[in-house]
Structure formats: C-alpha cells, structure tokens
Design goal:
alpha/beta; Alkaline Phosphatase, subunit A; two-stranded antiparallel sheet; globular; binds zinc ion; transmembrane; Sulfatase_N; transferase
C-alpha cells in the first residue's frame, strides 16, 4: 500500500498527474460516501452501483455546491502538484511494481487454489460477493471499496438466483386452500414514507394527507397505528411482503413459492405496475418478484407503449386499462416512487400550491396522498369492490435518506392503511390481531393478510411464532431486535 505513492509519482508528469488525480477523486468520493452513510457496508456499495441514471442525477442534486467546489479545488491542487513533482523514474517504478505484482500473483493463486470448483463457478454471484467482501475486509478504505465494486459489477455475470422460474415448494406455514376471499386486491407499496409526517397519523404542522383524512373521516379506510418495516432498504423490505422471506430466513425468496405465484395458483390474474425499476443488482430482488406476474410493467421493463416511467402519475393510464380486465379474481401490486430523494422532483405545482410553506418532504407526502386517491378512484370505477393496502417499504430520515447504520427509527416508521371491500372491518381487525407482543404491526405480516384474501389458511402456531419476536434486517445485513438498533456513534 505504502508503495502506491512512490509508483504514482514516478510515472512521468502525465502518468503521475492522471494516476494521482484519479486516486484523489476516488478518495474524495469514498470519503463523502463514508461521511454521508456513516459506515460503508457492502450494501451501501451495492446500492450505489444499482442506482439508475435518474436516481443518480437526483441524488447528486442533494450534494451542496460547497462540496463540489472543495472537491474541484482539491483535485486541481493534486493535478498541479503531480505535474510539478512527477518524474519518470524507472527504478522507482520497478521497486514499486515488483511487490505489487507479487502480491497480485500470490492472491490470485490463493483464490484459484481455494476456489470450490465442484460447486461454484466464477459467474456465481454468491461466491463472487463472498470473495469481494473478503478482499474488502482485508483492504479497507478506497482500495477495498474500488476492488469490491470492480468484482461485483462485472457485467457478464448474472445472479442465477434471480432468474425467474416457477417454484414447486409451498411454505409449510400454509395448511389449507379455498376459493379466494377477496375478488380484487390492490396493494400499493410506497417508498421512503415516514408515517409521522402524515396528517392521518397526527402530524399537524402541515395538512399533508387531505384525501386520506377525508376517507378516514368517512370510515372508508382504517389507519393502523404503531407500524414499522422489517428493513430500512427497498431491496430487503419489499420481498418480505411478497414472499416468505424474513430477516432470519432469506433463502425462502428463492426456494419457495412467492405470494404472486400463490395468487396465480389459486386462480388470480396478477398485475405488477411500477414506476420503480427492477433490473440492476440493487433493484433485482423486487424486479425478480414483479416478473412472476401475468402482466408486469416498470420504468425499465415492458413500457415501450404504455408510457410508464419514474413518475408515479405515469402509471395511471395503464392501471386504468388493466383494472378493466374481465378476469373474476385479480391482484394488483402497484410499486411507486413515493418520497424517494430527491423530494422536489416527486412534487408537482399542485402540491406546492396546496402547501406553499411546507418543506419538500411534506409536499412529496401530499403528492403520494393524491396518487393513492387516484388509484382508489380508478379501482372504484373499474373494479367496484376491492380491498386495498397502502403501506411503504420503509420510512425516511427526512433530508438524509434511509438504510443508515446509525440512522435510528425514522427509517423504520411507516404508514399502514387498509380499505376493506365491505367497509372498515375484516382486514383492519385482522391486522390488529397480528401485532407483535411488543405492540407493533410489522411488514412481514403483510403476506398473511394477502394469503387470507387469496383464500389460504395459515397455521396459527406459525403466526404466533412470527408475532413472538420483533426482528429487523438492518443496513449492515445483520438481524437486530427492533428495540435494540445499533446506536449513534460519532464517527466524524
Ligand atoms: Zn425504498
């Protein structure tokens, strides 16, 4: 490691300037991410890599200008210094290169010698991830992070676990099957929505949820209090609502029938309509699930003619069209962008007009309130009777984000709103009964509500077991008790 500077300053002026500036740029980027995320985990890097172009532009817009100016000045300084100090020195290059090459050869040999060829190919991302993670542990900081990204992002490698193929195994918790109990199911999965900013959850600083409030007053919906997600990141959370995956047991996403497959098995026509994406390594866990549906459209999939993009309002025409479908039993998953950063590009002039003195986060909640209302209004006119769940994949630390190791509870607190086909009753009460022993309703129980609607019976003992603990899959991919999240550490 300490030989790197020697090498970098001995490659002649141009060579030194390029090497040093690129290294410095990576260093600044790594420092900024570490600062912003408190702790760089493998998941942080996966998330960065999986960010699509629009999200990246949106997120870069949240970095203050002063940080950009400081970065440009630092890079300029390094470039000038390298130009002045950089000399071509063959001996120094040799001295620096020999140990580097030797270490490289030694590590490659070690990797080759220990590679489990009988079970794993290099193309198997599980092993590749394991090795990348291992290398990162041994070379922390910018070198480890860049190595990790280089190994994981190799384009020709496909994660075979996320290839869509029919499963044959039904989870053992399911003990019976009847005709579907709800003919039309609409599940709206929100994004980065913090319940404590909802008017219907008692927030009175701004009138963020006028539509939901009106429906609540008319008893068309119920608003569940005290709800939290089981993971503060989309990729971990969404699969826990639509499969048997839990924080402790994650392989069930790949080994057993998911909720979409169970719906189809029981005669439902299934639709997944999403302004979210689903192709990159970050989005793949929910992209994978979406593709089990009879009809799938997303901002990055099957949207050539229906106009679906990252804006939530773009899904309305196709939703109206698909809700017109004559199939007797139907399930719709609607996966929206909600309040993902950057907030102001989720907000329309109508939201600003309605809440001129609110911050952009509150305005984005106001926008989602209107999106939910629009979906419900289409459902009412096209489907007639339907049961709807509206919730969010996770909460949000307002103006900061989510998926933070020491981010605390705001990234977990979510809304849970139910409209019952036959007026407020059945599923609101059932959800109340599904609270954990500590009083919280959590996202992993969503699947039990859906299974009941779809006509399945679940072993009551299994559900009791699920209620007896309150575990979450946290930012570092480790399981914690919800009442004992990793506490704030002052890293900087
Ligand atoms: Zn999310």
């Amino acid at each position: 490691m300490s030989l790197l500077p020697l090498l970098f300053f001995s490659c002649g002026r141009i060579g030194s300037m390029c090497l040093n500036t690129v290294f410095m740029a990576l260093l600044i980027l790594d420092f900024y991410i570490a600062h912003d995320c408190q702790l760089i985990t493998d998941g942080t890097l996966d998330a960065i890599m999986g960010t699509n172009r629009h999200e990246a532009a949106s997120m870069l817009g949240t970095v203050p200008w002063s940080a950009y100016i400081a970065a440009v000045l630092a890079l300029g300084l390094v470039a000038v210094l390298s130009w002045r100090l950089g000399r071509w020195n063959r001996r120094a290059v040799m001295i620096a290169m020999v140990p580097l090459v030797l270490t490289g050869v030694y590590n490659s040999w070690k990797l080759y010698a220990n590679w489990p060829f009988h079970t794993a190919k290099w193309t198997d991302i599980v092993y590749r991830r394991y090795i990348a993670s291992d290398l990162r542990d041994h070379a922390p900081g910018v070198v480890g992070d860049v190595t990790y990204l280089a190994i994981i992002s190799t384009k020709w490698v496909k994660d075979r676990r996320f290839v869509v193929r029919a499963h044959t195994v039904t989870d053992r918790q399911v003990i019976g099957r009847h005709a579907g109990r709800v003919r039309n199911i609409v599940f709206i999965m929100g994004e980065s929505s913090l319940a404590s900013r909802y008017g219907v959850y008692g927030y009175d600083n701004q009138n963020t949820t006028p539509n939901l409030q009106e429906m609540k007053d008319r008893k068309q919906i119920c608003v569940l209090a005290k709800v939290h997600t089981n993971a503060p990141m989309t990729r971990y959370s969404v699969p826990m609502s639509f499969s048997f995956q839990t924080p402790e047991i994650r392989e069930t996403l790949f080994n057993e029938k998911n909720i979409i497959e169970m719906a189809r098995d029981n005669g439902y026509k299934t639709f997944w309509i999403a302004s979210q994406d689903g192709k990159g390594p970050y989005a793949r866990p929910f992209g994978y699930l979406s593709e089990y549906s009879d009809y799938t459209t997303r901002q990055d999939y099957n949207n050539e003619t229906n106009g679906v993009n990252w804006k939530d309002e773009s899904i309305m025409p196709v939703l109206a069209d698909k809700m017109h479908d004559p199939a007797p039993y139907k399930m719709y998953v609607v996966h929206i962008m909600g309040s993902h950063r950057k907030y102001d590009d989720k907000v329309t002039p109508r939201d600003v007009q309605a809440l001129p003195n609110a911050d952009t986060y509150d305005q984005s909640i106001h926008h989602t309130d209107s999106i939910v209302q629009q979906i419900m209004s289409i459902a009412t006119s096209e489907l007639g009777d339907y049961t709807m769940i509206y919730t969010s994949d996770h909460g949000e630390i307002v103006n900061v984000g989510h998926g933070y190791q020491y981010g605390g509870y705001d990234q977990y607190i979510i809304p849970m709103i139910i409209h019952d086909a036959n007026g407020v009753g059945t599923y609101c009460n059932m959800a109340e009964q599904m609270r954990n022993h500590d009083g919280y309703y959590t996202s992993i129980m969503n699947k039990y509500l859906l299974l009941d609607m779809l006509g399945y019976d679940v072993d009551p003992a299994a559900m009791d077991a699920a209620r007896s603990r309150d575990h979450v899959l946290h930012a570092d991919s480790k399981v914690y008790n919800y009442n004992n999240l990793p506490t704030e550490k002052n890293l900087w």
